[in-house]
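Review box. Two proteins, two foldings.
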Amino acid sequence: MNKVAIYVRVSTTMQAEEGYSIDEQIDKLTSYCKIKDWTVYDIYKDGGFSGGNIERPAMERLISDAKRKRFDTVLVYKLDRLSRSQKDTLYLIEEIFGKNDISFLSLNESFDTSTPFGKAMIGILSVFAQLEREQIKERMLLGKIGRAKSGKSMMVSKVSFGYTYDKLKGELIVNQAEALVVRKIFDEYLGGRSLIKLRDYLNSNGIYRGDKYWNYRGLLLILSNPVYIGMIRYRGEIYPGNHQPIIDTEVFNKTQEEIKKRQIEALEFSNNPRPFRAKYMLSGLAKCGYCGTPLKIILGYKRKDGSRSMRYQCINRFPRNTKGITIYNDNKKCDSGFYEKADIEEFVIAQIRGLQLNSYKLDNMFDKQPIIDVEGIEKQITSLDNKLKRLNDLYLNDMIELDDLKKQTQSLRKQKTMLEDELINNPAIMQDKNKNHFKEILGTKDITTLDYETQKSIVNNLVNKVFVKAGHIKIEWKIPFKKCEF
């Protein structure tokens, strides 16, 4: 038995006068179902809603019921009753109906996705939709490149420090007060200050970036931004700008040479040419097991061969009061010790290797997911669907105004979306999917034999946090979050 969902829509009274009234559409579509000996599951009616988008009460209900596979076919009078947007039409037919094994039929155009011709038409629609998307992207890209070549700023929503944006002229205007700070940053850096000391100097002297403190990355971006010599950077290319420069080209070039020089020195000292980027396996993951504050890398004493050991210690072991830095745990002193970096990393790798070898242990990690009341949530969604349907009927019968319909519909939709999200994110349903994803990242190749960068990538994809105490470690896995003590 073919269960059919009938969808009808009018956007204006003018359409009703032209033969597209709700009742006329329903009459023709139900008659067609009788001829075909099909069962009408439900009639979804949107009166007074544009076909320009799919944000309509009955359409929302249709999509929800389609995802729950409550019918076999969707029937409309004309294709534009479903949507006037080719993108939305393709989305509904392919992503909503097709993926749930639901056929789509338009009576007027004899468009039936259950037939070879209908399937071919979907392919044609898809090709033209993709072509339209690519043409729009190309036009936008050419427009932006043209704008950059003409010297106009590409930073309209986020203007570089030292400038304001003149919307009428489409140009950057020098902010004289901020420009003084920019020049000061370049002068101090070339004068020998490190970025850390420069940050501390600016913040301690009340020289802020608007209402925010300076930080390491923000200063580095200032020093490497060609906008300050009157240039525009877009998609890796540099173009002459129309705006006034703040820094001389000679000063800017010297600054770039100094940045490279200091990176080389950093490489020789700590084997890290870019100290502002996470280099180590547990960077951002390692936390103090006593106070929860992040652990940081410190260098041990020099060995006879000139090398240094690396250790983790809690940031709050020696609290800092410098303005502009992130404060953890109210900056309370932590009496924890330090931990050898190599020992912690080897331990984490060993635990991951254990999961590779012990499928029972891995399965056990996923067997204790919380259970939610699926049946109860589905009943609540059905109740909301019925309320949305009654609201639409009240509007069609002129018993409520359009503003009231939209206001109440919006509220009910929010409730429904929250419930649907809860079902979609149901740990019990997602368990197999999560487990397979975890296994895919885990892989079958012995992690202990892989190079450091590959190990780091695997760890960052599997591990959320690593809490470290003396003789005690907790690993919080991404499955979602689950702590395992060792």
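Next protein.
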Amino acid sequence: MKFKELGLDDRLLEGISAIGFEDATPVQEQAIPKIISGKDIIASAQTGTGKTAAFLLPVIHQILQADDDQSNIKALIIVPTRELAVQIDQQMEGLSYFTSVSSIAVYGGGDGQSFSREKSALSQGADVIIGTPGRLIAHLNLGYVQVSNLKCLVLDEADRMLDMGFHDDLMKIISYLPKQRQNLMFSATMPPKIRDLARKILQEPDEINIAISKPAERVAQAAFILYDNQKIPLAKYLLKAKKLQSVIIFCSTKNSAKQLSKELKKLEFSVEDIHSDLEQGEREQVLRDFKNKKLSILVATDILSRGIDVEDIELVVNYDVPNDGEDYIHRIGRTARAASKGVAFTFVNEKEQNKFYAIEKLLETPVPKGKLPASIGEGPEYKPRTGSRSNGRKKYNSRKKRK
């Protein structure tokens, strides 16, 4: 379906055309008319399905149609991470380019000056606020954020926010908002805790389900069974052999990300690592350099596994096995975006075999096993305990907030 068939404001259609969009994705096709009609919705949609535009477009449309000159905030979008807040604000800016609708992203990690700038902007008023829970509460508690005219609340990556322990923060924020409002909840997965949260917030919502918990068919997957000390040599071998221009390597800890990045730099690869030890400005600069192709390889912890929209990723490497099947799907979902194809490799050491087998069970298919090159040597046999009771799903509130 074409965007022009969805009843959107002409000024929005100009922005859509300028960006180069023409056909709506399935989640956009289903969500936009429902949101425009005023319905609450709960949507299961992974990153890469176009879910951000699925809520931004109708939210902007409704603000334009209301033609309300008041400076109060009209819509609030809550997200789990500062990176996602910045990305959504950038997409908001592009889509609303031919309108007068304003937005601001607020998030932690900066200095006192950044908080003061946010305070000044919020005091003057903006149509749409995009923010992380902790930062939003800090501003709301000080009393200058005018939400009395708020019409719409959006929770994006709701499952991620619960994983990070933000349930109480979300309920605190909602306590500041008017009871009469539209509520939109987007989540990559739909576990019981998300259902419980939806019952507290949404009013008779329509439900949308878009391709949850399965990797894209265009992703060619392979797992390498190896010893831990073979991981760095294999990473070097694969990167030298393939000569790729856009690679993300996911590590489970900051230390492994730093170590791998250091080893790759010795071989003069164009590489940087990104994790929570970096200052906010440093992280944003690394992301900009990667998106602009100034960097070929990004070594990252899970801060990039969801929500960050980087086009044309040729290869994703799980240097460490993700904690569960859902994280695996989100990590390899960085490649094969839109109509492109991609490759995802996972390194599995002896201690990670049971965890990886649990992921395969959740995916309901074995991942092909790659053969180690002769220069790396032989790895261990793949002998996971197949009787493991784990199903590859995470336990909520088991993760730390920062990696």
